[in-house]
Amino acid sequence: MNIQINLAIIAIVIVIPFVSYYVWQDDPTKDIQIQTDNEKLNVVASFYPMYEFTKEIGRDKVSVSLLIPPGMEPHDWEPTVKDIQQIQQSDMIVINGFGFEQWIKDIKNFNSEIQITDTSFGITPIRNIDEHEMEGIDYDPHIWLNPKTIKIQVQNIATSLKEQDPKNADYYARNAQEYLNKIDSLDKKIRDDIYKCPKKDFIAFHDAFSYFAKEYGLNQHTVLKTSAVYEEATVQSLEDTINLAREFDIKIIFTEEFSNPKITQVIADELGGKVLVLSPLEIEKEGYTFLDRLETNVENLKEALC
Ligand SMILES: [Zn+2]
């Protein structure tokens, strides 16, 4: 048997089970147009922050498609058959990394040519301390919420775009620099506004802010005890949160745009406090940019801490 046939058999053995595994997950009501543009670099981004960062750098030279559909929560998401087709027709895929996209390990079976841009490259990870470790996810993935780590992600995307499309290298470098400058101003605003606040402890809804908290000398506590965003808060977790809030004199409890606000409202009512949004920025919100929303987070945090 020659080597070509061997490879073909290996491909069948590997590819078929993967495809059939995902078939049942394909939602027939979801009608994705496979977007490709022959004139432009075709890039697929795993989830909302990666999509927006790539568009900011690629602008009109790059056709970017978002893999996880709008409104869908990215934790534990898996690609469908249509998503695999989109990936097959793309030049490059941008992922967060640190295990957030567990499905990425199989992607080379579908498109061996695709460039995988892992935006976590060069970032020092924070280890997970909860049960995610048992699922083989060792690192906290939420690097897109800390301006300092976002900058590394943006630089990694810019480097890949320059490699894939060298004739527009200067264009990507300029766009990336402009975006990095905006992130720098936001970082400065956080240091000016939040550093001086007397309180250092805050209660987020899920554990999305470890990198942010570490960067700015804050302590994150959470209502949910895991990253499972759909997890129901238990009576015990509500009681624990209320006790914690009393201990740290916390009056503002944070919710997320797409989670049930009743859970946090119950806690805030008990404390005589209020609910504000601290967005994990995992899902697109129409009419707002990623950096606008990050700035709103900072304003709400300032209200809670100062
Ligand atoms: Zn999260």
Side by side, the strands of the main sheet go 2-1-3-4
Low-confidence stretches: 1-32
Number of helices: 9
Overall pLDDT score: 86
Strand elements, count: 8
The CATH homology group name of the largest domain: Nitrogenase molybdenum iron protein domain
User: CATH fold name of the largest domain, please?
Assistant: Rossmann fold
Write the layout of secondary structure elements.
Blueprint: H1 3-23, E1 41-45, H2 48-58, E2 62-66, H3 81-88, E3 92-95, E4 115-118, H4 147-164, H5 169-194, E5 201-204, H6 210-215, E6 219-222, H7 235-247, E7 252-255, H8 261-271, E8 274-277, H9 290-305
Parallel strand pairs: 1-2, 1-3, 3-4, 5-6, 7-8
Bound molecules: zinc ion.
Zinc ion binds next to loops.
Can you characterise this structure?
It is a single chain. This protein is of the alpha/beta class and 306 residues long. The chain folds into two domains: 3-187, Nitrogenase molybdenum iron protein domain (Rossmann fold, 3-Layer(aba) Sandwich); 196-305, Rossmann fold (3-Layer(aba) Sandwich). The protein is 42% helix and 11% strand. The protein contains nine helices and eight strands. It has helices at 3-23, 48-58, 81-88, 147-164, 169-194, 210-215, 235-247, 261-271, 290-305; strands at 41-45, 62-66, 92-95, 115-118, 201-204, 219-222, 252-255, 274-277. Helix 2 (48-58) packs across helix 4 (147-164). The model is unreliable at 1-32 (pLDDT under 50). Bound molecules: zinc ion (ZN). Zinc ion binds next to loops.
